[in-house]
Amino acid sequence: GLIELCWGCISLVGMPVVGLMMATSWSLPFYVLALMSLLSTVWVGADTFTLPHPPPLTRDASAVAAPAPAATAAAAAAGGGRADDHDDEHPSIELLPVSAEESDHSLQQSCAAGWVSILTTKRTLIIIFINFVSCFCMDLTFISFGHFWIELYGFGLLELAAVTTVVGVADIAGEVIILTVMPRTSPASFCTFSLLLSAVAFATFPVARASVVLAAVAWFVAVLGFECTAVSLMTVVSRTRVLVQEPPVAAGGASTALPFKAALRPRSGLLPSASACFNGIGRCSGTALGPFVWAQFGVEGFSLLPALFSLAAFFLSLAFLDVDAAD
Hints:
about 70% helix
């Protein structure tokens, strides 16, 4: 929530300040942003060197196949004990050391199996598609935000800086709605409604250009719908498990005295990573295509394409509802 509010404040405060700096010197905000990025890099780097080192890699012995009884008896005899010696009153989880090679190989296999699971499951496919569509549509329109106001209404830099406050207000309003409304409903249903809201907002741009006020309202609703979609989809992602079939072999594919058990195991970090990946693809695609769409088709193409994509994502997101209880 704090990160999202900071994002809203960037639009509410940062963009108008950039506009004011550009009115003084076109290159000034770029120098300021470069300096701030350098300071942030130094700050993060300093924290990285002061963080404690992680503990050695281990794995739960329960994830390893039990050795044969004969091997267990031989090991017990060598140690002077009995094969069935154990403490019933104080059971513990034995942690076995994991070599760097074994860890790297296991991670590669787990990631590959995770992507296969994500790309072959309807629910996860819908999630990454909606991630792509929401970012693609918003960036396709937002890259032409300046063209919209300058070419249709003759705005200068100061007016453009002022109208960007609409984006910041929409971001913060979205956070308030998310905090107050989404807890009362399911995140999947909230995401579905938000996609419909975005589609309607994009579709109204040709009509809303009749006046500055209507255009500002259309932009407000579009940004609001995107914000609500993005944040609610994060919740849906966090509640969706990806089960990965782990291979029943040890590192390098060789058999060992303690081979891994073959099992379906949840991997919580794979779907967020895949979602972030498709977020980036959507943003890059929308940013690259946006100027062409505006130059060739104007407001109509700038409005119709994201509206159709958002509407398609809306109908696909209805598949969330029949599995929402399993989240």
